[in-house]
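Researcher: We're teaching a course module on how sequence relates to structure. For the next exercise, students receive a sequence and then see the predicted structure as tokens, so they can try to spot secondary structure elements on their own. Here is the exercise chain.
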Amino acid sequence: MGDNKKDNITKIQTNYALQHEEGQISVARRKKLLYRRLTAFFVLVAIVTYIMVSTLISQTSTIAEKKEEQEKVKQELASLKQEEILLKEEIVKLNDDDYIAKLARKEYFLSDENEIIFTLPREKEKEKGKEEEEKEEEEKSSR
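Model: And here is the predicted structure for the students to work with:
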């Protein structure tokens, strides 16, 4: 019943009461605008933060890939430098007539005077020979 009495009370229509009511309405509007601006600001900050973090993550992964690629290229460069050294040594050796003669005798089975060449089976040929012998033994045992 107490609530009904407050509803039945009429408001005083004085200048002070009107100004006070208008002041409360303007304060409520300002608060509402402030909340809207703060909400918009925080949404904007969240979007900018997301963009910055995603950019940072993508750049970090790109840098890691580039470092990996750089290491591979460094290793390749080291191996190519080693190969270059070996090739330069080979060039020096190829300018020596004795080395060329030795190489030709080795590769093309050429001989010096009073020299006999014996060819020995290589490792792969030895393995093939062993496999063939094993197959022959299996065939003999299966008969």
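Model: If you want an answer key for the exercise: The mean pLDDT is 84. The two ends are 119 Å apart (CA to CA).
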